Amino acid sequence: MSHPELVAARRSIALGKITAFSRECWRLAELVEAGALDLADVVDALAEADVTNDLSITYGADLVQSTISNAFADNAYGARIAEIAA
Q1: Tens digits of pLDDT across the chain (86 residues)
Q2: What are phi and psi of 34, to 5 degrees?
Q3: Which residue segment(s) compose the domain that 56 sits in?
Q4: pTM listed for this prediction
């Protein structure tokens, strides 16, 4: 069963696409930093949202990857995010 925060993020992204995706990346990064969510689970959920909503097809994979990376860049997980997302 998915964490309620991840369910909310998926729903928001489905409704708002890339703007919502960016907002959810930042929101989920804060929850990872606070220890409320696991980084790998968040990256998996964001990757799933990308595929489900055709974000990489519509906006380009580089934009999607940089959106995720930028959200996590200022916290302790910034260095790990590129490894997990790759």
Answers
A1: 689 888 888 888 877 788 889 999 999 999 998 999 999 999 999 999 999 988 999 889 999 999 998 898 876 665 566 565 55
A2: -80, -10
A3: 4-85
A4: 0.75
